[in-house]
Amino acid sequence: MCKQTNNVKKHPHPTPSVPKPLHKWFLGMFTASIFSIAYLVIPFYLLSAIICLFLQYPSSHSSLTYAFPILLSVLIPPMPSKFFLRLLRPMLDYFDFEAIHMDEDNIRKQITNGKSVLCAAQPLGIITYCGICAAATNPDDVLAVPTAAASVVLNMPLLKNLMGIFNLVDASASNIKRILSTKNEDGSGTSILIYIGGIAELFKSCRTEERLYLAKRKGFIKLALREGVDVVPIYLFGNTSVLSALKHGPLASISRKFQVSLTLFWGKWCLPVPRDEKLLYVVGKPLGLPHITEPTQEDIDKWHARYCEEVRNIFEAHKEKVPMYKHKKLFID
């Protein structure tokens, strides 16, 4: 699945000069569009079902039948699924997906030796297609790493079942701390992936510039220092380009309030279909954070600045590999 070159592991991808087979392109587009269409349809379906149940329209039986998928979803907990993740692989060709691991052997060595790792990803897209593609190719041990998500995603009927295949957990600080402070049965460290910028970051970037909501996000550094956890920066190129969002209006405000992307968005042909542009998933090197039980603000600022520097280095070193990013500038707000 992966080949190693100069200690950098890559997921093989089609040669750009070779056109993608049409049937593979359509299958990849269909698979990717399941998520974008679901994100648009589910909130409106939930709202309409609640109204129908309340008004018993057009009849009590009909309204119950219409709302039955919601009732079923409430009873079924979200479940991680390697099987469904493998079914997403047609998206790899559609997006010409590539993954680069700059220091995977060292990360695995740290975890084996009992060191926990906080994987810090950015930027957050309307739908994290770059992360979805990575999940579709990751080995089983990496799939076991949970991804922190907003509570509304974990609890919204239907959406929780769709996104639950990615092994999502609550993004509260207490839960992240609990996971990172727990060791596996064999004594190895644990890991968790978090998106640093959150929904606020979603409304900053566009197709012409990349803006990270990172300058004031220092809590993850403080947590890592306190718990003796290392931090690994991850950059998701293309995450903010395959879909464009409506950044103003009531839906955008609701998205910010509830920390979930409920705004209107569009992609290819101005439809809720993601653009078939290259996605690049880059996992950087561990920062090497020390264990400081009571870090000072100076300690936090120092390592946060180091993190921002590493993120910028990753961006500048790899943006030439992604056509949409060749002329993009990175802003850290």
Description:
The chain is of the alpha/beta class. 44% of the residues lie in helices and 15% in strands. The chain is built from 14 helices and 13 strands. The strands form 4 sheets. It has a 7-stranded mixed β-sheet with strand order 1-2-3-12-9-4-7, with helices on both faces. A two-stranded parallel sheet has the order 5-6. It is globular. The chain starts with a strand and ends with a strand.
What keywords describe this structure?
333 residues, alpha/beta, seven-stranded mixed sheet, 44% helix, 15% strand, globular
Structural class: alpha/beta
> What is the mean predicted local confidence, pLDDT?
90
Q: What is the rounded Rg?
A: 20 Å
Number of strands: 13
Residues in helix, %? 40-55%
Spell out the helices and strands N to C. Answer: EEHHHHEHEHHEHHEHEHEHEEHEEHE
In this structure, how is the largest beta sheet organized? 7 strands, mixed
Strand % is 5-15%
Distance between the termini: 37 Å
Strand neighbour order, sheet with most strands: 1-2-3-12-9-4-7
